[in-house]
Design goal:
The complex is a heterodimer of chains A (179) and B (656). Chain A has 179 residues and is an alpha+beta fold. In chain A, 25% of the residues lie in helices and 25% in strands. Chain A is built from 5 helices and 7 strands. Chain A is globular. By secondary structure, chain B is α+β, with helices and mostly antiparallel strands. Chain B has 3 domains: 197 residues, 4-Layer Sandwich (Aldehyde Ferredoxin Oxidoreductase,  A, domain 1); 58 residues, no CATH class; 209 residues, Aldehyde Ferredoxin Oxidoreductase Protein, subunit A, domain 3 (Orthogonal Bundle), CATH 1.10.599. In chain B, a hairpin with a 2-residue loop joins strand 8 and strand 9. The longest helix of chain B has 21 residues. Chain B starts with 7 loop residues before the first strand and ends in a 9-residue tail after the last helix. Classes of the chains: A alpha+beta (179), B alpha+beta (656). At the A-B interface, helix 1 and strand 2 of A face strand 14, helix 7 and strand 15 of B. Strand 2 of chain A pairs antiparallel with strand 14 of chain B, so a sheet runs across the interface. The complex binds iron/sulfur cluster (SF4) (2 copies). One iron/sulfur cluster binds next to loops of chain B.
């Protein structure tokens, strides 16, 4: 595979500063609505703030890759006297849980760094976090070219994994005939 | 298609267990917006004046506001409406937190409870799934405990839970409804919830909420956001810290409490302690607070940090906000903040109003010291100040012994105890405990707000208007320079002319006419906030807020698709305000009830006070008894109210 120059975008999370407002979830969900800003639903957000207030846990996590199956075993961590399960930090849209899947269709969600917003723009959640929990960093690196899947492809792939090709084709045919 | 609102209410009959999802009339949104506005309309339609707080027919309505759940910052209020056991008038305690937004995402604008459940239950609302669940295992549990148990048993850590504690279960008149870091505490909403046998309401939603014109809405939101950022880094100059910022008072962040401890009164609203805030106290109180506050937290979609997770010494964790940081120490005359952090944890678990409750306990201590309550009433009570308060609080929430009498609040307790106890009930208006402030010269603006506001509590009635005249002309000029929030330019002149002393100072300036205009403006913004679900700290309760009469209509129009200009919006809330007043009037409220406690100011001016009331009533379009005239009601499309008032003989046909 060819080497290419690529911008690596990172969001650094300073969870200690989080006040739990969920503004990041709100803006993410409404930015990604179709049409843009037509609806709000934090459950569709690609950033989720894991909250367990009485344990002083507020942990913003971004949706990463979709996985077909849940992992085989999980670690638990104790950090600063607070226990976390690996699941808390995990960015996968995983069949073992609701997080990072569309609440109605169950299709996986993935953070796209608000690419649609154009180059040089900070992701919306970063802009909307007034508490400086989320810091955006961009740097150029040389990497091997990989093929990134778009939203539609990820969605289709997950449906394919779940239901098989035949069922998918049959259903598509039925729906298109109906409409 | 409905925008900004869901267009559905949940109707729950607790006696039969019947649950219905009811579509609401979009016309009502145009007429009353949402939140308090539409809830008042529902109370008017469905709760007759004969109904008492603990009658099954009394409704208990949990409402979100019209803009709650949208991306506009700080719209997150839940408004609870019901008949107050304390005043027999409409109560509408509100809370911030996360509950209202979850309700919207679950697909409902309001939850309306009627009748009583035969046994203790909790309600679980998860999108289309709504259940009444057994809560017998939660009986007697604290509000924090209850919340944690429910979240665990539902296996939904992100559910928002509003719960009552022992006080609510025992129908204590100052029982609160606690939720996250917030609480709906004034006027006994928790007591009605307990009477209906509802221990808690848990809600979690994952449905879409729609905006009519999203892009346009976001433009206005972004402007407000810029201003919030600006104000958070640029407090208003020449204003005490506590009033210079935006948001609810940032009590958990600021440690300097000179303003509260020296301007508010201690004990049973008794003693002003000038010079209290010494270097030593500052040191000790700041250290205590810093060790107690584990993290600063906000409400839903708000960048501020008004609340805190408290983890203090060996007391179990709880959350706190606002003035509750000080109320118990001040009421008990305990010069140590340690006491407040310890007793507030218990009070939060019990679920009691942190304004009224400490005052009622202080009232009991005074009666004991005056010999009106005796050793028999205090049998088993420790003799130190702190121990006494802990002991009293315990009796109070359990309604045991003297606690049973105190649990009805100062006004009713004083009348039950008799023997001169009435004299010690000196800080209530319309039977409700007020914030402990006692001052020198009558302030005409406060006089009107105290006397006439339907909220029956001065807290958060004032706000957009400076609390006193600026000492110099320069400061006045500086203050009025950037003031786009004003509904009318003429208010600038009032500020410029207003002097701390001399002819143009209180009590005669602002003049009764000016006072009426200013108070009307304060009421208007409060009514808008309470209908839209905005935190008063970002609107009506602070100087130069991010939201005001010039951007509310833009937000409402873009969000809902109902085009509303400033005049239209003003009329809408004026309509709700008059309906609200009529609701209380039908329940017997009259001019004689509209007065502050006698000792509220040392220097009173009876003639001026009457003149203030006359002018204000007239300005509002009310008759001399504070009753909306037929003319005003018709102007506001409230013909049905005029008819009702005439039928009852409250308004006489042909005369106002
Ligand atoms: S916007 Fe920032 S402070 Fe608010 S929840 Fe998200 S990460 Fe936390
Ligand atoms: S300003 Fe404070 S009280 Fe108001 S919504 Fe924000 S965090 Fe809550």
């Amino acid at each position: 595979m060819a080497k290419i120059k690529k911008k690596v975008k990172t969001i650094k999370v300073d969870a200690d500063k989080c006040n739990g407002c969920q503004s990041c979830e709100i803006i993410c969900s409404t930015f990604h609505a179709t049409p843009k800003y037509s609806s709000i639903n934090p459950a569709r957000s690609r950033i989720q703030v894991i909250r367990d207030p009485m344990r002083d846990v507020w942990l913003p996590v971004f949706a990463g890759e979709y996985v077909e199956a849940e992992c085989m075993g999980r670690q638990t961590f104790v950090i600063d006297g607070k226990e976390y399960s690996e699941c808390d930090f995990c960015r996968a849209a995983c069949p073992a849980r609701d997080r990072f899947t569309e609440p109605d269709s169950g299709l996986p969600l993935r953070c796209d760094m608000c690419e649609e917003n154009g180059p040089g723009q900070e992701p919306l959640c970063v802009q909307w976090c007034f508490n400086e929990v989320l810091k955006f960093e961009e740097r150029e690196v040389e990497v091997e070219e990989d093929v990134r899947l778009g939203d539609l492809e990820i969605g289709l792939k997950s449906l394919l994994d779940k239901h098989g090709l035949q069922k998918l084709v049959d259903t598509m045919t039925r729906i298109t005939q109906k409409s | 298609m409905r925008y900004a609102e869901t267009g559905y209410n949940l109707e729950i009959d607790l006696a039969t267990g019947n649950i219905e999802r009811v579509e609401t009339d979009p016309k009502l949104t145009e007429l009353y917006l949402g939140g308090l506005g539409t809830s008042v309309k529902m109370m008017w339609d469905r709760v007759p004046p004969e109904t008492k707080a603990f009658d099954p027919e009394n409704l208990l309505i949990f409402s979100s506001g019209l803009l709650v759940g949208t991306p506009a910052f700080s719209f997150n209020r839940s408004v609870v409406t019901t008949i107050s056991p304390q005043t027999d008038l409409l109560a509408y305690p509100m809370m911030g937190g996360f509950w209202a937004a979850q309700l919207k995402y679950a697909g409902y604008d309001k939850v309306v409870f009627r009748n009583k459940s035969p046994k203790l239950v909790y309600i679980w609302i998860h999108n289309d799934k709504v259940e009444i669940r057994d809560a017998s295992h939660l009986k007697g549990k604290g509000t924090v405990e209850t919340r944690e148990i429910i979240k665990k048993e539902l296996n939904k850590p992100h559910a928002a839970v509003a719960a009552i504690g022992l006080a609510g279960e025992n129908r204590v008149f100052t029982a609160s409804i606690e939720q996250g870091r917030s609480s709906a505490s004034r006027l006994g909403g928790g007591a009605v919830m307990g009477d209906k046998n509802i221990k808690a309401i848990a809600v979690l939603g994952s449905k879409d909420l729609f905006l009519a014109r999203g892009e346009e809405f976001m433009e206005h939101v972004n402007k407000a956001a810029e201003y919030i950022k600006f104000r958070n880094t640029n407090p208003l100059p020449g204003i005490p810290t506590i009033l210079a910022g935006i948001g609810s008072p940032q009590e958990m962040k600021h440690t300097d409490e000179k303003w509260h401890t020296e301007n508010f009164v201690w004990g049973n609203a008794r003693t002003r302690r000038r010079g209290f805030w010494t270097e030593e106290i500052n040191e000790s109180w700041s250290t205590t607070q810093k060790s107690a506050v584990k993290r600063l937290i906000s409400c839903f979609n708000c960048p501020q940090q008004c609340g805190a997770l408290v983890s203090y010494k060996d007391t179990p964790r709880y959350k706190m906000k606002c003035f509750s940081k000080l109320t118990y120490s001040m009421a008990a005359y305990v010069d140590d903040l340690d006491f407040n952090f310890r007793i507030a944890r218990l009070a939060t678990e019990y679920g009691v109003d942190a304004f009224s409750t400490p005052q009622i306990l202080a009232f009991a201590v005074e009666l004991y010291e005056a010999g009106i309550l005796t050793d028999k009433d205090f049998e088993g009570c420790p003799s130190d100040k702190e121990g006494r308060f802990f002991w009293l609080l315990d009796r109070f929430v359990r309604r045991e012994g003297i606690g049973d009498i105190l649990a009805d609040g100062t006004y009713w307790a004083a009348r039950k105890i008799g023997k001169g106890a009435e004299e010690f009930d000196h800080n209530t208006i319309k039977k409700h405990e007020q914030v402990p402030v006692k001052l020198g010269t009558l302030d005409p603006l406060y006089y009107l707000m105290y006397s006439t506001n339907e909220k029956i509590s001065i807290t958060q009635i004032e706000g957009n208007w400076p609390q006193g005249a600026f000492p110099t002309r320069e400061m006045r000029e500086q203050f009025v320079k950037d003031w786009p929030q004003l509904p009318d330019e003429r208010f600038k002149q009032y500020v410029l002319d207003w002097e701390p002393r001399g002819e143009k100072s209180i009590p005669y300036f602002p003049t009764p006419d000016m006072c009426s205009e200013i108070v009307d403006w304060m009421e208007m913004v409060h009514n808008i906030d309470d209908a839209l679900g905005l935190c008063a700290g970002m609107g009506s309760f602070c100087l130069k807020p991010p939201y005001h009469i010039h951007n509310y209509p833009l937000l409402v129009s873009a969000a809902t698709g109902i085009d509303m200009d400033e005049e239209g919006l003003k009329k809408t809330v004026n309509r709700s305000r008059n309906l609200h007043r009529a609701f209380n009037v039908v329940r017997g409220m009259r001019r004689v009830d509209e007065k502050p406690p006698e000792d509220h100011w040392k220097r009173r001016f009876p003639e001026l006070e009457e003149q203030l009331m006359d002018t204000y009533y007239k300005y509002k379009g009310w008759n001399n008894d504070g009753i909306p005239t037929k003319e005003r009601l018709l102007e506001l499309d409230l013909g049905f109210v005029a008819e009702d008032l005439e039928r009852r003989g409250i308004l006489q046909d042909g005369q106002d």
